[in-house]
Amino acid sequence: MKPLSIFLIRHGESLGNVNKAVYKTVPDWKINLTERGVLQAHEAGRILANTIKAENSALNNNQIAFYCSPWYRARQTYDNISISLKNSYPDIKITYKEDPRIREQEWGNYQEDHLFKKINEERKKFGTFFYRMPNGESGADVYDRVTTFIDTLHRDFEKEGSASNICIVSHGLAIKAFIMRWFHLSVEEFDQMETPDNCCIIQMRLQLNHKYKLQTGLKTNL
User: Fold this and answer.
1) Host domain of residue 98
2) Residue 175: inside a domain, yes or no?
3) Interior CA angle at 26 toward 24 and 27, to 5°?
4) How far, in Å, CA of 201 to CA of 188, rounded?
5) C-alpha dist (Å) from residue 130 to 133, 190, 191
6) What is the pLDDT of the chain when averaged over all its residues?
7) Bigger pLDDT: 209 or 108?
8) What is the model's pTM?
9) What is the spatial distance between Cα 81 and Cα 181, in angstroms, rounded to a whole number?
10) Region of residue 134 (left: phi > 0; alpha: psi -120 to 50; beta: else)
11) pLDDT-derived band of residue 222, with 50, 70 and 90 as boundaries?
């Protein structure tokens, strides 16, 4: 059974979002949330609970399955979302899986300031989808692994007792790649999409034609 809603949530504000120098000494996947990021995640959990209850009060809609990037900031975001979600919706039933395929785009290993600036300038000119990071990934690489993740989602939808809501806690570019793949957007449309804000909730709602519609407007750089 297809879920009623698929929610995409970027992790909360991280130490790397406020201080790029942290990338020189801490592996990207080990970067933690800031205090503000924790508060953002709690607020996202409250909004998520209210959205599910308000839209589906007449249905048996008390299930949500989380799929989460294994990177620290995503896992910490899930932890705080789930606390707030349970407080706001005590009857909610939550399941949780980590999946490395929805991790952040890999920018290489430790990142030096002069290289970081050069990469950002080249990436804007070249296009964010096809530009490959030195020792890292292109947006197209992320798209490929997100595609296999979506295949897994569809198989999970068919399982008995599948959740009535799905929530994916991931990263900016991975979320953009997910939307691109799901809605068959072009490379140009991908490059025009802005990175979602920290803990922004993007909702895909199932329609009567059994297809999903984006309920959330996406920012573009046009």
Assistant:
1) 5-214
2) yes
3) 105
4) 23
5) 10, 11, 10
6) 93
7) 209
8) 0.94
9) 26
10) beta
11) low
In-domain check, residue 221: no
- 115-141 per-position pLDDT tens digit: 777 888 888 889 899 999 888 999 999
CA atoms within 13 A on the CB side of 199: 26
CATH of the domain at 79: 3.40.50.1240
Residue 220 lies in a domain: no
Q: One-letter amino acid identity for 18?
A: V
Q: Is 219 domain-assigned?
A: no
Q: Which residue has the tokens 């620290």?
A: 72
Q: In what order do the strands lie in the sheet with 63-68?
A: 93-98, 63-68, 165-170, 5-10, 201-206, 212-214
101 token code pair: 């395929």
pLDDT in tens, 141-186: 999 999 999 999 999 999 988 999 999 999 999 999 999 999 999 9
Residue numbers annotated as active site: 11, 104
What distance in Å separates the CA atoms of residue 170 and residue 158, rounded to the nearest whole number?
23
The tally of domains found in the chain comes to 1
